[in-house]
Design a protein that fits this description.
alpha/beta; 35% helix; 9-stranded mixed beta sheet; Dihydrodipicolinate Reductase, domain 2; Rossmann fold; 10 helices
């Protein structure tokens, strides 16, 4: 058998290490060079938060914008130096190629447009909700799978460091056996568009969706739902249509049974006087609280813009604040995170099945509100999230 001396062994080891390092560097360089080609549809108010974030991502190449108000698409493209803009999804899909459609349109249009995008061979990131019914959402996931594509849905609340801290605290048993949770989010309602108040709109898919995603993410999928919904303000005046009749709920109370005795409650609405307003600036109170047999915990700020977690336990009864890091996470990061995932292959915390589960809860809440019955939930998702 051939043998080598120590010096030769060290030389060969060094060469192998250098080769491995060069391979890693080349792989990293290739990864950094590759970008996901992105098309954005819907250039209204939400896009003013998405586009700046996307434009700074090293994993994104913005290639096109689209809006039925074509001037908005053109202005957004000009502002962010995007080469192509279109007045319809049909022309967008037939135009310059791209990998990922980002859907920021009125919520009533999400399901229809997401189907067109998937049938056009595009992956999809959709603002909430991804569809207008659980059945439509389930069909979207099945369509994506059949075409070897992916679809993801907002919100991105599971990405925050505060969510991670709360999830870990629960799993480590710091609260003991969790019994109850409460979450709320509301304001006086958007004024810039009628779709929030038209059929298929409402405070549940616009506001409650955040809390529903957070509580199911922390406590596990809902097994059953009971709810009451109402319309407090039957007429509204909005910028794009003037005086309108409100068709969708602007007030909702939702109870979720997570199994093992754990019950949570979400309230949301467009009739909440809130000095922090729609943007939530200056909000320093707990908006989500969770109770257990050994402690309680509260999320400080809104779950889409959190900045701390207050925790009190049997071991330390005086409340302490943790997870005060506010750098890095923003509510509009979902599409950027998904783009990075498409490049690196790292599976994101945001899951389409979770978004579908929340959509089913919203639909069940409305059914319960109309019938007064407890509604069983069919869907589930991989849990715990973190």
């Amino acid at each position: 058998m051939d043998t080598i001396d120590r010096q030769e062994f060290l030389r060969q080891t060094a060469l192998a290490g250098a080769a491995l390092l060069m391979s890693s560097v080349e792989l990293f360089a290739e990864e950094q060079q590759r970008k996901v080609k992105v098309g954005v549809i819907g250039c209204g108010s939400v896009s003013t938060q998405y586009l700046p974030h996307l434009s700074r991502s090293p994993f994104v190449e913005l290639v096109s914008t689209c809006d039925i108000i074509f001037d908005r698409a053109k202005k957004a493209a000009e502002k962010y130096q995007i080469k192509n803009s279109y007045p319809s999804i049909e022309k967008m899909l037939a135009g310059v190629p791209f990998d990922l459609l980002i859907n920021l349109t009125d919520m009533q249009e999400h399901g229809r447009l997401n189907v067109l995008a998937l049938n056009g061979g595009k992956n999809v990131w959709s603002e909430k909700p991804m569809a207008n019914s659980y059945r439509e959402g389930k069909a979207l996931l099945e369509l994506a799978a059949s075409k070897k594509l992916r679809i993801w849905g907002a919100p991105a609340v599971v990405n925050s460091p505060q969510f991670a801290f709360m999830s870990k605290a629960i799993q480590e048993g710091k609260l003991g056996k969790v019994s109850s949770a409460h979450a709320h989010y509301g304001h006086l309602g958007p004024t810039w568009s009628a779709f929030f108040y038209e059929k298929g709109g409402g405070s549940l898919p616009d506001l409650g969706v955040y809390n529903l995603a957070t509580l199911t993410g922390l406590l596990g999928p809902a097994k059953n739902v009971m709810a009451m919904t109402s319309i407090v303000t039957p007429q509204r005046t909005v910028d794009n249509k003037g005086k309108i009749t409100v068709e969708a709920e602007d007030n909702a109370m939702v109870l979720m049974d997570h199994g093992n005795g754990t019950i949570s409650h979400v309230q949301c609405g467009f009739n909440f006087f809130d000095p922090y307003g729609h943007e939530g600036k200056g909000q320093e109170k707990q908006t989500i609280t969770i109770w257990g047999t050994h402690g309680n915990m509260g999320l400080v700020g809104y779950d889409w813009a959190p900045f701390g977690v207050d925790l009190a336990t049997h071991d330390h009864e005086e409340t302490q604040r943790f997870a005060t890091d506010t750098k890095g996470y923003v509510w509009q990061e979902g599409a950027s995170v998904i783009s990075k995932s498409m490049v690196t292959g790292e599976e994101p915390l945001i899951a389409a099945q979770h978004a579908l589960h929340v959509l089913e809860i919203i639909e069940a809440a409305r059914t319960s509100g109309q019938t007064g019955k407890k509604i069983a939930i069919e869907s589930t998702f991989k849990w715990p999230v973190v």
